[in-house]
Write a structure and sequence with these properties.
CATH class of the largest domain: Mainly Beta
Distance between the termini: 22 Å
Order of helices and strands: EEEEEEEEEEEEEEEEEE
Number of helices: 0
Strand order of the largest sheet: 5-2-8-9
Structural class: mainly beta
Number of strands: 18
Radius of gyration: 17 Å
CATH architecture of the largest domain: Sandwich
Shape: globular
Helix content: under 10%
CATH topology of the largest domain: Immunoglobulin-like
Length: 228
């Protein structure tokens, strides 16, 4: 799995997002979920083409998939209940595709991370897992996935040198119970861990590394269900 390339996530002004995974619904719409990942930002409202789609989203919270008209859309993130815009981005949404949009970074440098979600079935007998580095305070990291209870002392990371705002591709893993560790890149110094995580064949999961509210440690992992 370590041979999967790290993909730098799309930033402000992203356009022409394309892909093959879809939601399976035969409508001219796309499907968008939003993650508030800016640790020092207030609660936010999300507007699509200047219409409020999500209200009062707090740090670390996830607004599940909303149906959004496909095509070129303007997405704004405002401080909740105000007209103060902290993100103003144009995105191209493909029909029947699904996307995750993270408002990421400290408020002074906040920008969107836009990801295309593959909600199709993983390879037979596998689970698809994607990792996103959205912890603004953390340096580049390595990611370890080991059987539950195992040590990383002699383990090899599945992802290496992952920078802030980057995402992996979907990594196919066997179903079972795992421990996940995020370390400072090139070391075994654990910054984040999640123990006894259970995954089942056919699922797809996105794992997001986040700061504590306000920024810095203790860091944590947020697990999103792309496909159950």
């Amino acid at each position: 799995m370590r041979h999967y390339a790290i993909l730098v996530a799309a930033l402000l002004g992203v356009s022409a997002i394309v892909g093959c995974g879809g939601s399976g619904k035969s409508t001219p719409n796309s499907f968008v979920r939003v993650v508030h990942a800016s640790p020092d930002a207030p609660n936010v409202d999300v507007l699509v083409d200047n219409r409020i789609a999500i209200q009062n989203l707090g740090y670390g919270e996830v607004a599940g998939y909303r149906s959004v008209a496909a095509g070129h859309r303007n997405i704004k993130v405002n401080a909740a209940g105000t007209s103060t815009t902290v993100i103003d981005a144009g995105v191209d949404l493909v029909e029947r595709e699904s996307y995750t949009v993270l408002a990421a970074g400290f408020l002074a440098q906040i920008a969107p991370i836009v990801l295309r979600d593959d909600r199709s079935a993983p390879p037979a007998g596998k689970v698809n897992v994607r990792v996103v580095h959205a912890a603004a305070s953390a340096p580049e990291v390595d990611v370890y996935v080991v059987p539950s209870g195992a040590s990383i002392d002699s383990a090899t990371p599945v992802l290496e040198d992952v920078p802030f705002r980057a995402a992996s591709g979907y990594l196919p893993v066997n179903p079972g119970r795992y421990d996940l560790f995020v370390t400072v890149a090139g070391t075994k110094d654990i910054a984040i861990s999640a123990n006894n995580v259970s995954v089942t064949a056919g699922q797809a999961r996105t794992v997001i590394a986040l700061d504590a509210k306000g920024g810095g440690a203790p860091f944590r992992l947020e697990f999103l269900a792309d496909r159950n």
